[in-house]
Design brief:
InterPro entries: Cyt_P450, Cyt_P450_CS, Cyt_P450_E_grp-I, Cyt_P450_sf, Cytochrome_P450_Monoox. Keywords: Heme, Iron, Metal-binding, Monooxygenase, Oxidoreductase. Pfam families: p450. It comes from Pseudoduganella rivuli. By secondary structure, the chain is an alpha+beta fold. The protein has a single domain, classed as Cytochrome p450 (Orthogonal Bundle). About 50% of the residues lie in helices and about 10% in strands. The N terminus is likely disordered. Bound molecules: protoporphyrin IX containing FE. The site of protoporphyrin IX containing FE has 25 residues, from α12 and α17.
Amino acid sequence: MKTETGCPYHQPGAAPAVPLNPPGAWPPGPQPGITGWDLLRQMSRDMLGTLRRWQRDHGDLVHLRIWPEHQVVVTDPALARELLVHHHHALIRWERGIAVFSELHGHSVLIAEGEPWRMKRHALQPNFAPRPSAALVPAIADRTARALSAWRDGPWPVEQALTALTMEVIAGMAFSGDIAADAPAAAQALHNLSVAANSEFFWPFNLPRWLPSQRAKRRELAVLDGLIARHIDARMQAPRSAWPDDLLARLLVLHDADPAAWPLSAVRDECMTTFLAGHETAAATLTWWAWCMAANPAAQQRARDEVGAQLAGRAPTAQDIAALPYLTATLQETMRLYPAAPVLLSRRSTAPITLGGWQLPARTIFTVPVQLMQHDERWFPEPQAFRPERFANDAQQAPRGAFMPFGTGPRICLGQHLVMAEMTVVAAMVLQRFALAPQPGMAAPQPVMNVTLRPRLPLCLQLSGLT
Ligand code: HEM
């Protein structure tokens, strides 16, 4: 779409003119009591269920007075886009969320703000553009074929297997490394840290690491730090001429060229974020996709037929991906039902923002619960049904902003092209080799939000090899 400025992020505010409420007025919301801390308690117990109830009772802009903060929950697609795209200059990430994440991610692109963020995003973006992402498809297909050769008929721990596979894929892209031996300990450490992070968001500050109660956390952080440090050390000891062309090599070139802007700690931080954000979200999505396929045999067969017609048994190439629209739609529908990041990292306004007729002061916290919007029957009829057809080219489209598993605006997911290529390749190759079914008597897995959305119990499915 052409815009006045020519910049895709700076389209004029799309919302129709609405009457302005006076400054100082807030959108409706639940009664906060004296401090509003009970609202916080309700959210910490069941974030999405609680936000759903407040949306039903108060509408698409809900004000939460949680002393000393004012928070606004946005579930209207147009207003969510207006906030994240049009008002992005007046937003930073919510400090408490960043304090929790920075224990692992340091000052990486996920954490940084302002000029440091722009500099990092600008340097990293070319590595994650569609073309370099497509160039990784042969390596992804190789690793997937190797991993799938170990899968067996019968009950199979698909979640664990897919987590190990996505770790290997991202380790290959980031440091050309083989991390099979480290995968189980890294997955366990990340799981424990994510469970802890989920409650830490609701604490006022991080506890000092030296406290005896933080011993387990120190151990988990050391597992992940050690993994990244080993790859960086090994690379730095290898002769430059032997360096493979991967993300780590490109970051070390930046470090050599400008050690002040790219100290080794910054190289470490980007490796950590790519490794963690790159495998955990993909593993969660592929796990839910495997469940959706198992629970919807007709959709599974249709996707397999498409894969069979296009690939005739060979491994997918980058060119095949666009020729697998139904398979892609099964992944999109999975992300609609089970977005890996069900609530976007909350934002804090640094200047007054007018949204939906409300004049909201600087320092307001904004929360965008993507999962609620993607389960809204106004945009997705029968929202709990798995219907990849919703994403067909000729289907009636939901309004922009109603489906945004990768976020939107300048801070949209850096890895979206890479991960769509990766997930399509993995999904196609799984369908070529196995039929997926629920285990006898199995109930639908319960989603739990531990930073990403995962099944409450590790997902195990019934596999039947296809000859
Ligand atoms: C299905 C997989 C994935 C999903 C659903 C997902 C989703 C997201 C979301 C919702 C955000 C935050 C947007 C916001 O706060 O507005 C994000 C940011 C980010 N993602 Fe992903 N992501 C996925 C895979 C990946 C992969 C594979 C990588 C890297 C290899 C990656 C790297 C990042 C980074 C670096 C950011 C921060 C960008 C910034 O702040 O500028 N993600 N992702």
